[in-house]
Specification:
Shape: rod-shaped
Number of strands: 0
Number of helices: 3
Oligomer: single chain
Mean pLDDT: 84
Amino acid sequence: MPNQIQLKDAEQDQEIALLKHRVEELEEGGVDELRQRVRKLERTVWGASAVVAAVVSLLGLAIAANSKVIEDDKVGVFTDQIRQYELEKERTPAKFVIDRALLEWLKWEQ
């Protein structure tokens, strides 16, 4: 029985030594590896953001190049045209006004 205890202690000591060795390796190489992975990820994110920024900029330039410029003197004319259209849309045609007036006058005469 004491022999089995000593064997078990020896096995546990070997496992402890092995685990200590692995922890030391991870502390030395694991941190460097982790830093390299983070740097690589940062480069990837920076690259992707640069591509997105370039695409948005090019799209904005393309839209700006295709747009029309409204000059200051044309803005007033355009506003007047809108007002005129709205007035014409609400205005009753002269023929209908005259016809109604004649009908009312005929009714009034009777």
